[in-house]
Write a structure and sequence with these properties.
Elements: H1 2-29, E1 33-38, E2 47-52, H2 54-65, H3 74-87, H4 92-102, H5 104-109, E3 116-119, E4 130-133
Antiparallel strand pairs: 1-2, 3-4
């Protein structure tokens, strides 16, 4: 059982590496990243290091400033926050604020065209947790 689990992990790791390098190759062909050879550990092979080109930096900056409405993709939104924070490319709080300010009417009414959602009075007063009204 352990051998098959280890082989599965090894296969998944190799597949992940393959997918990563295919994507990096596409980004390199598009002129968004450039590969630089870097000396590896003294007992290991040289490492491949990829760096954003000016065009890549511009595209990442555009991507970080994009606001997705009416339904934001939460996985992409969280990825933006991580990239911004870890790469020092943007202020994550600014990204949240832009998303919040982009469509204040939708934030108040709910998703575009949907019913309005308003928080109910504090729980414990016998009121439901969420009240809805027709738009």
């Amino acid at each position: 059982m352990r051998a098959s689990t280890a082989q599965g992990r090894s296969r998944n790791h190799l597949y992940g590496q393959l997918v990563t390098y295919v994507q990096l190759g596409r980004l390199e062909k598009a002129g968004l990243v450039a590969r630089q050879e870097s000396a590896g550990a003294s007992d290991g092979p040289d490492r491949k290091v990829y760096q954003l080109t000016p065009a890549g930096q511009e595209r990442v900056t555009e991507w970080l400033s994009e606001v997705s409405w009416p339904k934001p993709d939460l996985a992409e939104f969280h990825l933006k926050l991580i990239v911004a924070a870890q790469g020092g490319l943007a202020d994550p709080i600014g990204i949240v604020d832009r998303q919040r300010r982009a469509r204040p009417a939708e934030c108040r009414r709910g998703v575009a065209g949907g019913p309005a959602h308003r928080p109910a009075p504090r729980a414990g007063a016998g009121a439901p947790a969420l009240q809805t009204e027709a738009a």
